[in-house]
Amino acid sequence: MRDFIYEIPVKVYFGREQFGHLGQELSRHGKKVLLIYGGGSIKRTGLYDKVVSEIEKADLKLYEYSGIEPNPRIDSVRKGAQLCKEEHIDVLLAVGGGSTIDAAKYMAAAACADCDPWDFLEKKAPVKEALPIVTILTLAATGSEMDACGVISNPETHDKIVGMSPKLFPKASFLDPTNTYTVSAYQTACGAADIMSHVIETYFNMEDGLYMLDCFMEGLMQTVVKFAPVALRDPENYEARANLMWASSWAINGFISGGRSHLWSCHPIEHELSAIYDITHGLGLAILTPRWMEYCLNERTVSKYYQFGTRVFGIDASLEPMTVARKSIELLSEFFFKTLGLKSTFTEVGIQKKDFAHMAQKACEGDVLQSGLGPLKQEDIEKIFEMCL
Amino acid sequence: MRDFIYEIPVKVYFGREQFGHLGQELSRHGKKVLLIYGGGSIKRTGLYDKVVSEIEKADLKLYEYSGIEPNPRIDSVRKGAQLCKEEHIDVLLAVGGGSTIDAAKYMAAAACADCDPWDFLEKKAPVKEALPIVTILTLAATGSEMDACGVISNPETHDKIVGMSPKLFPKASFLDPTNTYTVSAYQTACGAADIMSHVIETYFNMEDGLYMLDCFMEGLMQTVVKFAPVALRDPENYEARANLMWASSWAINGFISGGRSHLWSCHPIEHELSAIYDITHGLGLAILTPRWMEYCLNERTVSKYYQFGTRVFGIDASLEPMTVARKSIELLSEFFFKTLGLKSTFTEVGIQKKDFAHMAQKACEGDVLQSGLGPLKQEDIEKIFEMCL
């Protein structure tokens, strides 16, 4: 078991009636607030008006940057950071899902630095300072509301890179499950797949870890399996939206990986898919994950699949471990592709064989694929891609 | 489901090789360190020398206050706070279990105030400021290393009162499981009972809450049930000590109660026992908890016992809920009194019937017994006491 440091300084306001704290949370950091959001759905839902009203009530000065893309682009980060510098912004308020929050994080870092923001991602330039960030979450998926990471895309170079720094933790996040009532069935499904994948990446790790955290991960996965279908059937079910929302934060805020390596497998591979094809992250993960599990199943790894199958899906514990393992992959596939209704193959989403070698080669850069269920080389990833066709 | 605010700003260094961070953590807060500890077991184990050496290496000035009692007394708090004021202490370093850390918390508060420290407890005087606290945990039990609470006793008035304030969160806590290798079997057992009870108090609550947190609580309880016997059998088992240690923090740091009321039942009752009899807190809880569960079992509450029995103890889910419920109480009693080897009755620990009315009456002060499995009045508590004889 590895030593670890636990530190999650984010304050979370969870529930329906927490909005009244927004002005006070922003005011802690200054007067000039940059409101950052995406394509404008927050105007249709009325959330925009509520936010503006709270900002006015608190006598703060409002600036705006909208149009953050899904798979947010480095150019948006550059422009937002420029605006922060020009207007001497004090605090960033990101309203949206992971893309908006991730973009805000690197705007906040770039606003306090002289380098190009892409240097934080590509060259791993350390984030020495960042403007404070407050978030209002509208999509349960990436967990960016409670972690120190951000993923930014560079369409020019077809790169999609994850960065992290303790300076990027939001100061406060507002998690009101009713703000996800209007999330489409497709995005709800992709979000659920994303949460599930964050847990699976950490859970399927052959290092000795804390049993207590395995139990918690199993609970998170059971939660997603139980409530994602409820949210799809009944989008305004508070209990379902609340469970998915809090699970999204805890699946990736760092708690569950205590004692084990933080290295993941499917995420770095998926980033290469969405860097070229711009598909939704959760969808790419759903297609990849069961194939990766199938590819990595062997005598050395089977015990973890057995634990997963019996404890998350309730498969009969008296069956042979290998039988349980295969059954668990089937049930996970069924969850992604039948229950959540996500497309199940590369062919359906237009990912082509001609890019396999290139994407697999890029995914292998660095040492990220050395851990988890076992080391993966370029040829392994290409084989996993073949299984996804 | 209630709204809630989540905020746990404690930094935790977990593992065997984290000690090197101690000097740096203390130095953040100043030069003058008050080392607080109990009866001197840390000198026998060598931990004292290690701590002093780190403090010297970091060029800090060391002061000491030792002799904190189990069920720490307000008089120790007064003396420690006085020393902080006289010597202009910058930071408190509590090395020990919950008693030492709780005492340090109220020393830290009283050092920044003019009132008598007992006012924080008895009169609920707000803690406006407190000196920073760093802890090194040597006993997995109370969770004080990661929460904002402290329990202080006043032997003159036979009061034992819990207080809390966000100002009392330790800044950093060092959790090295090897520091609990020398904990006696009896204290290991009492600690396990304490952790178990913290979870049970939160879990047995008939309000609608987050399913995800129920799963996590079940995981915490499974962890204690699995590893407490291992730690008793094999005191230097790292995995067992690590799981118990991290479980102790998460059983009470506030995370698991998100969405439900924080009101507890057995703890306020037990505090009346140990206020008069000075028994170990975990032992009192172990004796009380199964009787409280038995007393509160009815048609309205049975579903929670059923969930507990099937998911924590693996009782056959096809049995009648009431049968599962009774069986779950039996298994919990067996865990406390056979597996952990704790005494099972008031008679064995010398608690006498003549004090029942008085203790029950005091436990009912305030509204703390209105929640959980249902409201309890003085006569209910007296009946629970009778069951403990």
Automatic annotation (TrEMBL), chains A, B:
Tell me which residues make up the Alcohol dehydrogenase iron-type/glycerol dehydrogenase GldA domain.
Answer: 9-177
Q: Name one GO cellular component term.
A: cytosol
InterPro entries in the record, alphabetically?
ADH_Fe/GldA, ADH_Fe_C, ADH_Fe_CS, BDH-like
Its transmembrane ranges are: none
In Gene Ontology terms, what is one molecular function of this protein? Answer: methylglyoxal reductase (NADPH) (acetol producing) activity
* Fe-containing alcohol dehydrogenase-like C-terminal domain residues: 188-386
What is the official name of this protein in its record?
Answer: Uncharacterized protein
Keyword Electron transport assigned to the entry: answer is: no
Write the record's keywords in alphabetical order, separated by commas: Oxidoreductase
Q: Where does the secretion signal sit in this chain?
A: none
Q: Which domain of life is it from?
A: Bacteria
